[in-house]
Design brief:
It is built from two helices and two strands. It is of the alpha+beta class and 58 residues long. A two-stranded antiparallel sheet has the order 1-2.
């Protein structure tokens, strides 16, 4: 299951890269919805951009 772990610092990178999947209203950031296969590319992009590796594997 996709998710954000406790390494999250709330920097907002995930929401900037993929606002349809992530929101940051505190720490940790939150998934707006569980990603589908159609969302995989944007999820992977956000995961790669996360500076603290807080986004779990899809």
């Amino acid at each position: 299951m996709a998710g954000i772990n406790d390494k999250c610092i709330g920097c907002g990178t995930c929401a900037a890269v993929s606002p349809e999947l992530f929101t940051v209203e505190g720490v940790p950031a939150q998934l707006i919805k569980q990603p589908t296969a159609a969302d995989k590319a944007k999820y992977d992009e956000a995961q790669a951009a996360c500076p603290v590796d807080a986004i779990e594997d899809f």
